[in-house]
Amino acid sequence: MAKHETPLLDELEKGPWPSFVTDLKQQAATKPECWDILGQLELSYKERITHWKHGGIVGVFGYGGGIVGRYSDVPKLFPGVEHFHTVRIAQPSGLYYSTENLRSLMNLWEKYGSGVTNFHGSTGDMILLGTRTENLEPLFWDLTHDLKQDLGGSGSNLRTPACCLGNSRCEWSCYDTQEICNSLTQRYQDEIHRPAFPYKFKFKFSGCPNDCVAAIARSDFAVIGTWKDNIRIDQAAVQKYIAGDAEYPANAGAHKGGNWGKFDIQKEVIALCPTDCMWMEGGELKIDDTECTRCMHCINVMPRALRPGAEKGATICIGAKAPILDGAQFATMIIPFVEVDKENDFEAVVDVIEKVWDWWMEVGKNRERVGETMQRVGLPTFLSVMEIEPIPQHVKEPRSNPYVFWREEEVPGGWERDVVEFRKRHAA
Amino acid sequence: MAKHETPLLDELEKGPWPSFVTDLKQQAATKPECWDILGQLELSYKERITHWKHGGIVGVFGYGGGIVGRYSDVPKLFPGVEHFHTVRIAQPSGLYYSTENLRSLMNLWEKYGSGVTNFHGSTGDMILLGTRTENLEPLFWDLTHDLKQDLGGSGSNLRTPACCLGNSRCEWSCYDTQEICNSLTQRYQDEIHRPAFPYKFKFKFSGCPNDCVAAIARSDFAVIGTWKDNIRIDQAAVQKYIAGDAEYPANAGAHKGGNWGKFDIQKEVIALCPTDCMWMEGGELKIDDTECTRCMHCINVMPRALRPGAEKGATICIGAKAPILDGAQFATMIIPFVEVDKENDFEAVVDVIEKVWDWWMEVGKNRERVGETMQRVGLPTFLSVMEIEPIPQHVKEPRSNPYVFWREEEVPGGWERDVVEFRKRHAA
Amino acid sequence: MGYDPKNPMVGRITDLGPRYYGDFLPPVIKANKGTWLYHEIVEPGVLMHVAENGAKVFTIRCGSPRVATVNYIRDICDIADKHCDGFLRFTTRNNIEFMVDSKDKVEPLKATIKSYGSKFPIGGTGACVTNIVHTQGWLHCHTPATDASGPVKAVMDDLFEYFGSMQLPAQVRIALACCLNMCGAVHASDIAILGIHRKPPMIDHARVTGVCEIPLAIASCPLGAVKPFKAIVNGEEVKSVKVNAERCMFCGNCYTMCPAMPLADPEGDGIAILVGGKVSNSKSAPKFSKLVVPFLPNNTPRWPEVVACVRQILVAYAKDAKKYERIGEWAERIGWEKFFEKTNLPFTEKSIDDYRLAYDTWRTTTQFKYTSHTAAYTK
Amino acid sequence: MGYDPKNPMVGRITDLGPRYYGDFLPPVIKANKGTWLYHEIVEPGVLMHVAENGAKVFTIRCGSPRVATVNYIRDICDIADKHCDGFLRFTTRNNIEFMVDSKDKVEPLKATIKSYGSKFPIGGTGACVTNIVHTQGWLHCHTPATDASGPVKAVMDDLFEYFGSMQLPAQVRIALACCLNMCGAVHASDIAILGIHRKPPMIDHARVTGVCEIPLAIASCPLGAVKPFKAIVNGEEVKSVKVNAERCMFCGNCYTMCPAMPLADPEGDGIAILVGGKVSNSKSAPKFSKLVVPFLPNNTPRWPEVVACVRQILVAYAKDAKKYERIGEWAERIGWEKFFEKTNLPFTEKSIDDYRLAYDTWRTTTQFKYTSHTAAYTK
Ligand code: SRM
Ligand code: SRM
Ligand code: SRM
Ligand code: SRM
Ligand code: SF4
Ligand code: SF4
Ligand code: SF4
Ligand code: SF4
Ligand code: SF4
Ligand code: SF4
Ligand code: SF4
Ligand code: SF4
Predict the structure, then answer these.
(1) Does residue C241 have its Cβ closer than 6 Å to ligand 10?
(2) How crowded is residue C171: how many other Cβ atoms within 10 Å of its Cβ?
(3) What pLDDT shows up at residue C1?
(4) Which residues 395-424 of chain A have a CB within 8 Å of chain C?
(5) Beta bridge partner(s), residue D51
(6) Secondary structure of chain C: what % helix, strand, coil (to 5)?
(7) What is the mean pLDDT of residues A185-214?
(8) Residue B313 and residue B180: Cα distance in Å, rounded?
(9) Sign of the alpha-carbon torsion through B24, B30, B34, B38
(10) How many helices (H) and strands (E) does chain D have?
(11) Residue among A99, A149, A189 minimizing CB distance to C88
(12) C40-60 tens-digit pLDDT
């Protein structure tokens, strides 16, 4: 039955975690190319090296992204994976699916592809893993005509935006992450499909500072929910937590398996507040909200007693990226608070996006992420081109070197001086 | 009486802090060149610019350091300061003086110089401020013959070493700072007086981590006292502090002028310990010394109850410097613990010094401080040339980039590979 | 009608974008979106969210290998059709979530899930080891220094007890990326498994001009180790490049730009372990992961050294850290010297930064703890 | 016999080194060196150290302008002769210390000191503003961007109340350096007063070849702003240099290397204020000072803007910080945004690092406090 022996991969069928090898083998019954996937992977396991060729530009007409070309470097051994291109399909915001849609996608992929997928890729797309060049256009046709869906991003363009599930199921979301994610994905279809940028650009939307879609670490443009008024406190619920009421487990029950003893509001909440801005007074929990940095910890621990404020919006951080070339970057806090408002088509966010793009498309070098361009020109210059007033919130701390680049117009008398005049007053 | 009008400087005769202007004016009565000092300084105050020429190499025969040349750029106006060289005199370790010695120095300076000094220069030397070239040799003659003292350092050489007063008057000193400072200053007279280094090199010795001579910030080679056993606790004295006994003021009375209320051991000591390794138990103060980083805080606050351990020595930190060119550097912790032992001529410290010099004199570039050379080659290389095993104590945290420079011999099979062979297994 | 290769542009539809999320929300989610009041993790893998009006949604979270076949997806659709009105979701870490709108639907749903054997393990919530974010590896990519799905399977098998329980001091996020491009974004994970190369690229001189733009290949190297070179191929001089191996740090960026410069090698390649990263802003600011084990071999098929190392770190952490303390917060509190001591990982010079900005990580204080590492000095 | 210019090498003595410290110790110090047990600051400026055997030394500390004439030193010798067996010392921050071996000698000593009027103010101990470490300025140096002794006098006059008292949350160390060479080592001070230039160097083409080695001048510039140049001097072409003013950051290193490139300028030069540095390892590790006020003018003779600024910072700190908290520790605890708010200093882009390693100072978290600075966003 098995087309190739896979003694090494067979070892990965053992153990309690679900096995992709078992899954692939089962799929091979109806999609025989899965045997060649297993066969080539087994060879890689034996030789401890990849057997995929470098890249290869393929795609569908009119799109510069969405497909990643891939060819086997041992096609004779494994003809089923000679071509093995990835199709990235833009996911619905928040990663909810109807089974109807998923089944249609699977039917499509059974027809045109290897039958193997990733749910999901690291950026957030659905990844259909492995098809031949000649299948791309028919697949795309059916995808758009029958499923009313589209490819995601790849290459030097806007990548498929992603979000945490936001207020669809989370009480902390400070704005509708799905709505803005979907809306901007639609708005910027052209930027997603037709490479026009110096390099890739990623949006991610998290509803609160817990950042469940890792926006601050993984996106060039991170929109992270926050609030501007006070944390809402339900003092009666605070008492329930202190009393150890079973309906009010600490951290919403996230530590149920540990032997942590009775809940201790002092130790678990007040002492762990990074700004030390909470205290008990007259049996009530007090917060000095002017000192709070909205880190979420106290809210995470006592979700029934504490809630984000009622005046919500988001902080915009710009420029995260992976380590190549100069080391990884987190996104830098650029806009402390912005309204995220569907009524005005997310105007406040869109303004910032387009300003960044206009500038970066002009000055960004080839294969320079926006965070790298920011580093190259320096944060003050970036803020100035963005027409953003520098505020202490932009930095962790002021500079410790004294190397200020003064501009000529800032210095009375300018820079031109006459050394001859100088020498008259100062003998050499 | 006044040779020059000094309306601006006169303003600096007002106010409660002692006035150097008043002092200079008084001195001018017997040393008229002081009028020219005041005159030229007044001109600088008026024009808001210095009136000293750039450098000028002067010195005494056979020495490459100890004198800093200085000439007025308005000598016609102020002939008294036409030449105005600095003489740096090596200070006694710990800055104690007999009045006899000081008076002899003053007589000397009255004879050969302007009558103005700095007690002391930032590096630690006595600074005799302003004399003429022709006075240098006679001054040096008298200095060595009559006063039995010598010049300090300047230029690309070892600078006059300095120390805190150490165990001469401080209960915390973990080694005899004066003794090693004096001893090494004597040992390295040649290095102090005859430039042989890529750039300046400074030793500073502090008896404990309070670092009262700012060694970690201001010296290429910082020796900072520490201990390896446990903090010594006198529990009875702890109780006195807790009880607020007037003989046991918190922080040895350093806060006597503030309204800080009753001493609170929990708040003032235990909670401020950076490693959180102290607690009260059965009325006793406990310290988990394995977690202690010997920061001194608790000892500073309760000097009658707590003392450094009894097994004392020093930590060696290397490479501090001022900001030019790449930003200031603190010295980096290189040797966690070393014995500082007069019996063996401070062998353990001397070994490290000479190893650093051997290496730096070979690889250091012109005008490159040792800290800069360390940065240029990287800490791992520095440790390896110093034959020091890398330990986690050398860093605040492990690297966060993955850019490891593997050496060929570390990688099985080495680096040479045959691309033709490779292609046989991997079609292009 | 379908695609007509002769008239590819006729009737073409483009730029549809993703399907509208609103059409895919389970009814209880749709009805209560934006009104959730609080939640509770009822048991490992089971979340309850309660809306302002008292409505509840129960979510059962299941692990997934992420590499999923059509069959596999159909299985989860079957479950969702049976119990969840035909809706389901995935999490941002590739777990599957089945949602029901009342408590009594939870056990039947769990029973169905369990009927698939080990296919859909329940867990991944709270203070657990949740699913490992990972990448393609040898299954699909051209630059990997290790596989992705294999090591993930081996590590998750070993840590399985921590997936389905909530006994750790805090959530532990593990990620794997098979090369320094870090598609798995391991730069901010509690424990990161990172494929690394250790041999400089080979140069396929016969192909350089054909497949690369030489100036781009040269510019690609962050350390300027790639230089122009005239090579002799079949007796003829061709334009090519050479690599100054002494300056190479094996980042692979040249290979990304130039297919004629492959790095991968069975002996050279393997895995580095980084720890202590985090993403959330809770308590402490986001942190980068730090390299603590520079190299472990690609010991296929189950990477025993990697599995053991991850466990070693996790167990030491679980034993020593305080409640709510992420791995990086723990290491910073106890000091990295104690981290190495408590995890019993050897410290090597490879953990000392010598790239750019390195000075910032040097210890410029006399504050440190004595550990086994300093014994030679204090004996 | 004295120096004989005709035979300079005859009888020459060299390499004597400093005088042996042991010969200069007051008797009570000499007798008890190494056996001190504890100390107490009896009152501002008066320390008592107690030895194991019960011996005591009382130290009276006096401020000094550091610029001291022969007369001045003789005055302090007179005091030491009268009360201290002919010994005294200076501190590492240029204060003078008179020591006596019993308590009843303290008041007579103080009386003598006070008889000199304001010449020798007593103080500089404990939670005070002690003497300002400083440099040469216009009194002696060729590169200063400000004076040293003048601003120090003006600031100490203003802060005099804090020198002779111990009412601050912790010790406050002020330093002044008159140019970026930072001989005053202001890079690690609670409050640092730093002379800065703001105009690029002039080039005295007529003198460049005579006084500089052009390659060294070129190499001196950390930003590569100095380039070779052929200038016309008196109709003749001479080798010289030019400066790309756009790239210059006014560090003055070129002038240090080449006297024909002076920077100083009455309008260009002035003072920057840095805060929050510290040296000791107590509680927190040593910290660099941070630039918070980029420029204040050289308003001679009393630098009122500088004096006011230092006071403004000190007063805000004194009001808000906790006991034992150094200025930098305070700023880090409250957050730098609050520092600017509480001190009422304007924040400018100049405080944002744009030199090397700058990224490390960017705020890469959503954690920040709202202040007046964010009002435009939250109004
Ligand atoms: C499929 C995916 C990994 C996965 O298994 O999930 C992936 C796969 C590849 N990435 Fe990635 N990246 C994927 C998410 C990421 C992420 C994570 C994210 O987006 O959150 C990152 C780190 C975040 C970031 O953007 O910095 C990432 C950083 C890179 C980089 C480094 C970029 C940089 O600026 O440093 C490269 C190199 C490049 O662009 O040439 C890269 C390049 C690649 C290439 C195209 C290989 C190459 O050198 O050209 C990979 C194709 C693999 C294949 O053929 O199967 N991939 N890549 C992810 C995209 C799936 C999706 O669309 O959902
Ligand atoms: C006199 C003194 C300042 C004072 O008023 O106390 C001083 C004065 C000068 N220093 Fe300094 N430095 C003095 C202590 C320092 C210190 C502090 C210390 O040693 O603790 C530093 C910072 C610590 C360090 O070494 O990094 C210091 C860092 C510099 C630098 C920058 C060095 C660097 O690596 O960045 C220079 C520039 C140079 O070497 O060309 C410099 C250069 C100079 C020159 C020679 C000017 C020049 O550009 O050539 C100054 C001569 C002034 C004059 O003619 O009066 N001076 N210099 C100090 C020496 C007195 C003494 O011997 O006791
Ligand atoms: C479902 C998911 C969002 C989604 O859109 O898919 C999600 C959902 C929730 N997250 Fe999350 N987080 C999800 C990925 C993340 C990520 C992203 C990641 O890991 O790549 C993070 C940042 C991780 C990091 O810091 O490295 C994340 C950091 C948090 C935190 C901060 C915890 C901390 O101590 O740092 C909380 C708060 C908490 O757990 O107390 C949180 C809390 C929550 C809550 C309790 C929010 C709520 O009220 O519903 C949700 C259930 C938590 C649980 O599973 O225990 N969520 N959460 C993601 C589930 C991933 C999974 O399958 O395991
Ligand atoms: C006399 C002197 C040493 C010398 O050899 O001359 C000295 C003497 C003492 N220092 Fe110091 N320190 C002296 C400069 C320093 C310096 C260096 C500097 O400022 O340039 C530092 C580092 C400053 C910094 O961190 O920026 C220094 C940081 C300390 C500390 C740490 C305080 C902290 O909270 O960080 C202590 C402990 C304390 O005060 O509790 C200390 C404690 C002491 C004690 C109590 C030590 C003792 O038991 O005798 C001495 C009296 C303290 C006092 O005056 O309140 N000494 N001390 C120096 C007096 C300077 C002056 O005239 O004002
Ligand atoms: S980021 Fe915040 S809003 Fe979004 S799912 Fe996580 S906790 Fe909820
Ligand atoms: S959100 Fe964070 S900073 Fe704010 S009060 Fe809660 S724990 Fe403190
Ligand atoms: S450094 Fe330590 S030993 Fe030296 S004087 Fe200061 S407190 Fe005393
Ligand atoms: S010396 Fe510092 S670290 Fe050690 S116990 Fe005392 S306060 Fe804590
Ligand atoms: S991490 Fe590297 S090897 Fe792995 S998928 Fe991304 S680019 Fe490919
Ligand atoms: S692997 Fe990286 S460091 Fe090495 S040559 Fe290629 S680009 Fe340069
Ligand atoms: S800081 Fe600059 S100007 Fe002042 S003395 Fe030192 S070198 Fe001269
Ligand atoms: S002042 Fe500094 S930055 Fe400007 S030209 Fe001179 S060396 Fe270069």
Answers:
(1) no
(2) 22
(3) 66
(4) none
(5) D36
(6) 35, 20, 45
(7) 97
(8) 12
(9) positive
(10) 12, 12
(11) A99
(12) 999 999 999 999 999 999 999
Tokens of D256: 């240090």
Within 10 Å of residue D219's Cβ, how many Cβ atoms?
17
Would you call the peptide bond into B325 cis, given omega within 30 degrees of 0 as the criterion?
Answer: yes
Q: What pLDDT is recorded for position C184?
A: 85
Question: Across chain A, how many H-helices and E-strands are there?
Answer: 15, 14
Residue the block writes with tokens 């995935």: C90
Chain A positions in Cβ-Cβ contact with residue D193 (cut-off 8 Å): none
Q: Verify whether the Cβ–Cβ distance B427 to A328 is below 8 Å.
A: no
D203 φ, ψ to 5°? -115, 120
Mutating to test ligand 12, I would choose from D221, D255, D356 the residue with most ligand atoms within 8 A of its C-beta, which is D221
Omega cis (within 30) before A120: yes
Note the pLDDT of residue D358: 83
Q: Which two tokens stand for residue A279?
A: 């205290």
CA distance C136 to C156: 17
D243 bridge partner residues: D226
Map tokens 């492995």 to a residue.
Answer: A130
Who's near B12: CB < 8 A, 6+ residues apart? B19, B20, B21, D150, D153, D154, D301, D302
pLDDT at B359: 98
Q: Say how far apart CA C328 and CA C333 lie, in whole Å.
A: 8
Q: Which residues contact D236 (CB under 8 A, 6 or more apart)?
A: none
**DSSP secondary-structure letter at A273?**
-
Residue D357 to residues A367, B88, C51, C288, C359, Cα–Cα distance (Å) = 21, 36, 47, 16, 9
Write out residues with Cβ below 6 Å of ligand 9: C 135-136, 141, 143-144, 177-179, 181-183
Question: Which atom belonging to ligand 5 lies closest to the Cα atom of A224?
Answer: 1
Q: Do C187 and A63 touch (CB under 8 A)?
A: no
Is the CB of residue A325 less than 8 Å from the CB of residue C224?
Answer: no
Question: With 0-12 CB in 10 A as exposed, 13-18 as middle and 19+ as buried, what is B118?
Answer: buried
DSSP B237-289: HHHHHHHT-TTS-GGGGTTTTS---S--HHHHTGGG-TT--EEEETTEEEE-T
Nearest chain C Cα distance for residue B335, angstroms: 8
Q: Which of C149, C196, B427 is nearest to A51 (CA)?
A: B427
The pLDDT confidence band at residue D321, using thresholds 50, 70 and 90, is: very high
Buried b (16+ CB within 10 A) or exposed e, B275-294: bebbeeeeeebebebebbbb
DSSP per-residue string spanning A167-199: GGT-TT-SS-HHHHHHHHHHHTHHHHHS--SSS
Longest dimension (CA), chain B: 99
CA dihedral B43, B44, B48, B50 (to 10 degrees): 140
Flag whether residue D367 sits within 8 Å of chain C, measured between CB atoms.
yes
Is D157 in Cβ contact with B54 (below 8 Å)?
Answer: no
ipTM field:
0.96
Structure tokens, C46: 């089971």
* Residue C291 near residue C350 (C-beta atoms within 8 A): yes
Q: What is the pLDDT of residue A1?
A: 64
Helix A347-363, helix A177-187: angle, nearest 10: 50
Reported as a single tens digit per residue, the pLDDT across C312-343 is 999 999 999 999 999 999 999 999 999 999 99
Pull the structure tokens for residue A174: 């400070």
Chain D contacts in chain B segment 44-63 (CB below 8 A): 44-55, 61-63
DSSP secondary structure, D128-181, as one string: SB-PPB---GGGT-SS-SS-SHHHHHHHHHHTHHHHS---SSS-B-EEEESSTT
Identify the burial level of D1 via C-beta atoms within 10 angstroms of its C-beta, where 0-12 means exposed, 13-18 middle and 19 or more buried: exposed
**What is the Å distance from ligand 3's center to C167 Cα?**
16
Gap from CA of C181 to ligand 1 centroid (Å): 7
